[in-house]
Amino acid sequence: MTLYGENSPPADDRPTVQVTAVTWPDDGAEPVTTAAPGEPDGGPRRPRRMRVLLAAGITGGVLAAVAGAGAWAYAGDVPRGTSVLGTELGGRSRADADRELRAELDRRAATLATPLKVTVDGRIAEINPADVGLTVDVPATVAAAAEADAHPVSRLVGSRTVEPVVTVDVGRLDDALRKVLGNQAQGMTMPAITYQGTTPKAVQPKPGLALNPERSAEVVRAGWLAGAPVTVPLVETHPATTPEELDRMVSELAKPAVAAPVTLRTNKGQVTIPPAAIAKSLRFGADKTGKLTPSVDVKRLRAALGDKLAAIEVPPKDATMTISGGRPTAKEGRSGQQLDTAALSRDLLAVLPKADGREVTGELKPTPPELTGEKLAGLGIKERVSTFTTRFTGGMASSRSQNIATIARKVDGTIVLPGKTFSLNGHTGERGYTQGYRDAPVILDGKLVPGVGGGTSQFTTTLFNATYYAGLEDVEHKPHSYWFDRYPAVIESTIFWPNLDFKFRNNTEYGVLIDTSYTSSTITVSIWSTKIYDSVKTEYGPRRNITAPKQIHLAPGPSCIETNGINGFTQDAFRVIKKGGVVVKREKFTWRYDAEPRYVCGPKTS
């Protein structure tokens, strides 16, 4: 309805609506009325007070209605008409909305737990939502619903649907999808620079197709609640270092680095670093994005320089522990003087691209031992936890016995810190003539032949058993191809440089001391630490699949060693560990022994 006043335009032929203005006279005056346009003046007039009251009543009614509508619209934290997963949350407080949404999720629990079908590069599998952390974040969803639309009119009328906030463990999902993908992904060819002698060789970067964890999570979150199969895309990825950058790195660093030696000067003298040592220590490492970064590996540089650094450095010496009078006794180590590794790596890398001025100044810094007497004393090495002995023949005049004694001396007194892994190959290094080892029979290609270091497998078996009965974690070992009655079946180990190793992990909170000793006919290894278990024992299953040895004739000569032959068999051994009177661990070890042939040096007799 439109109201026109005194300044309204001239009348037209549209219908005229009559409006009567009401006023109230003051102090009992006669009511006066104003005629509508076109009416004759005169007639009864309403009092002015009545007009005021009537207007006030209308206004109050409108305001009351508006106020009521506003109170209704703004009731609760979540705007009216807001729903999540088909559940009306509008008009509720956040706490009520949270409860209602959780109730709806409980009603859908079976559906939400249904394995999700995923396709990755054509390979189809099912993923359990719980295994990858797929869930609805209820507080976040309620917060999103509460902020869905704060406009006053929108709160009064209309409806809106808010999508649930779905979370997923991106790392676990990526692991699961990689298992589905298997080896089908076309990984990036990472850029690389290596040296053949002193000649740099470059590997050009190439893009690949692979899973993108964030993109995978995005499509899985979107498809989970819909209950429909999900196709996870593979994304083309490019190494961060481009072919052009790689070529520039070769021409500006890799080639000039080995063009001439570098002089290392210190206050104790100088050392010449030849190109061959530079090539062995200059590394070009690519991170997971394919970014290639050069660095100087000072540990490799030390190895490449050999004894040259001994003229200017004094290495630190760790604290040691010996067994004296049946008790472990610690002996303090000493500090050394060594090159500042970080500064040397930085300064050497800076001069390698240069043709002139190829000199660096090395700073010798006091270097404390890694293991101090105080630290050693706090490792809890206080009692013998286990001991194991094996026997050998030939006395100490035998080359085999000498090899056993040599490796035993090398390992004696070794401290293995909590959580660390001991590698026998890593500890002794190569076992050759220069390290004091001699020729003795070894098993090679299924037969006994002379070889440097023969007999070290007996020490390995003895050490393995000592750690085994101490309850320490077996990391790597391999029994012999044939069984020898001087060793316990299954619970034994061979070793061969560099391919076969023996490793164990100190899975306790205490330090471990390896103590070795030998006589002319025995080798003994004891483990000292803090005793954790009541007992560690072995239970054997019966031997099965027994096979008899064959007789094989070999050409006679110094390389031929005759054997009597040994049966082959399969057997199980169980390590049973007790603590507090109950079995806390039972581990199964199984091995299949071949039948050792009966080797005869000479032709068959008729």
Automatic annotation (TrEMBL):
Residue intervals passing through the bilayer: 52-75
Pfam family, one: PG_binding_4
Segments forming domain YoaR-like putative peptidoglycan binding: 242-360
Highest taxon listed in the record's lineage: Bacteria
Keywords: Membrane, Transmembrane, Transmembrane helix
Chain intervals for the UniProt region annotation (Disordered): 24-47
PANTHER family membership: EXPORTED PROTEIN, EXPORTED PROTEIN-RELATED
Identification of the protein by name: YoaR-like putative peptidoglycan binding domain-containing protein
Organism ancestry: Bacteria, Bacillati, Actinomycetota, Actinomycetes, Micromonosporales
